[in-house]
What does this fold into?
Amino acid sequence: MHINLGKIKRRALVIIGIMVFLLSLTLIRIGYLQIFKCEEYTNAVIDQQTQASRVNAMRGTIYDRNGKALAESASVNTLICNPKQIESDNAAAIVATRLAPIIGLEYDYIYERLTKTSTQYQMLKKRLSVEETAAINELKDSKKNPETSKYFKGITFESDSKRYYSYGIAPHILGFTGYDNDGRMGIELMFDDELAGEPGSIISTRSASGTFIEYQYEEMTDSQKGADVVLTIDETIQHFLEKSLEEAVSEYSLKEGAAGIVMNPKTGEILAMATKPDFDVNAYNDITKFVNMAVNLDEDEKLSGYNSDNKEISLQATNLIMQKMWRNKAISDTYEPGSTFKIITAAMALEENVVSENSSFYCAGFKQIADRKIKCHKHEGHGSQNFIEGVQNSCNPVFMELGLRVGSQKFMEYFKAFGYTEKTGIDLNGESGSIYYQKSKLSETDIATSAFGQGFSITPIQHICAISAVINGGNLMKPQIVKEIRDENGIIKRYQPEIRNKVISEKTSQTMREVLESVVSSPTGSGKNAYIKGYRIGGKTGTSEKGRNNNKRIASFVGFAPADDPEIVCLIMMDEPQCAVRYGGTICAPVVADVIEDTLEYMGIERQYTEEEAVTDSVTVPEVRTMSVEDAKKTIQAAGFKVRVSGDSELTTIVDQLPKPGASIIKGSTVIIYTQEIDEEKLMTVPDVSGMSVSAARQQLEDYGLNFEAVGAGLNSAKGAYAVKQSIEAGKKVQPATVIRVEFRHASSD
Ligand SMILES: [Zn+2]
It folds into this structure.
């Protein structure tokens, strides 16, 4: 504890010989088993002999990596009273009557405390609003209340602090504080000691005979503000991830929600981590946000009762919902990784030299293991393929073969070396361990199914760390969520990247980066829905069963970029999609791609277009108004566009154009030039192109006098791509030549 000795000494000298000082701290810490109970007020238990109480310290701030204050404290008043200064029971009755409506508490509750004359400290209400404070000050004001103000002498304020989460993001990471400003979850809990600071104390005096002569509070030691915690989280990237997950929950009807992590694979720094649906970080026990975002909640017998008229049922359901909404799925949920685990199997097989890039395999749609025929997701089989094609196709028989070649002992050794048998030790509460085979030797069936990610359950945080090791040169990093602890004097502790294990060689890692890039970039790769124009992305799809013999699935995708020198890796898992297509490669890859694209752009990583991509590059529409028709045509064609003239052909000067000059549209689009003013009434109706191929959608939009731009996986390989979204919905009226951006996707069966 920090005590300002000098100050105490000075004051002590003045009154020495007359008074006795007693200094103690009264810590008011009650563990609320039920959050509901937090509205109940507790007394400061002050021993009759120790006339001192605590002055709460201002809690430290939680910053993101760029210094944005994600959690900060502001000063608020706590209402206290000294019953010994309440002159009579009559005075107590007057005070209680006036206070009750202002602070919204029962008369009896207040009266009881005012008349507890055995103590001189009673807490009446914490965290008064500005209005409450003002109203009470008015009661105490002798000019405004000449008759009754004298009764309020014993009513005073104590300074306390309230927590604000300004950006409203990352509730599972930041956590929350309880009624006494103590950390209850997340960083608030894990770094409570650092954030809390040192309380100061108020001391009062008494005479040698033991009777109080003057009841006057004096602050004797200053409270000391808590230290600040700087996270590795980037508020902007966290926002990208949260936004994408939120959209995914509703678009794909994710019954059990979604979790995602964005990490720097080289250092293990977590840049973003989110679970959706989640809760309002500024109202941690309010279930409204969760209930509004959750899918098919009403179908859940236990949870649907939250709005029941039966109080007991509603309370029970609300409690269950709270447990659920506070759960950080990214570290607390275990799941079968499915095909995303093939990254690990491939890495160990390469490292053990039981396979090379050119090794050949054959998939007949299944592989015979002992007495079982274990199927490939492509039932008709992938036929003959080399190692790289096997990874691109995510072919199960290829991976079963790789697992068997690695063998039981080595497989388990790598499983352990990649960190799957222990918790990562991330500085957040609630991390789960994995569930895996506890036997010394795996059967052939065990190995074969493990090789494609079945038969064991791991957490997303374990998985992203292992995958990072595969792509970062071979180092298993400890995931890091806190960058440093500091106070006004500077840094107290700096957290450094920590290598837990060297698992594979740089050479294997490099091969894996190349192979995984081809999973996304190859026109036949199973991860091509993660393609982003101008960026090199590597990745792997996964679709796993949730328990056997039910229809529940988890779709996942892990992607990283830039593929040759990864700066970020992103893992997203979608829990129980209720949509028609539930493959990770179809529904999850595009979401990971969105997060990666937003993040790379934000990080200022420049796009580098391949030759093919450059052809479809955007160019700026030139200014041709006031030009002659002939000059305008030439100028537009020279810029790489098609041109169409509209209006009276007798007129030879261009008065307007669409799109307007300065617009950025892809080469080959049509620019309409007008010899007469544009008829603003003449609008085009946007057609519905959903489900169409790239060429059909282009043709359809051109027929409607509109421009077309393909985005998403259809840009990488048009063959087999189908339209899933259009930037302006069908039926809307738009100006001619408006660009309609159409997002394409490929069907993926893994
Ligand atoms: Zn196959």
Remarks:
- The chain has three domains: 5-228, 332-608, 616-745.
- The chain is about 30% helix and 20% strand.
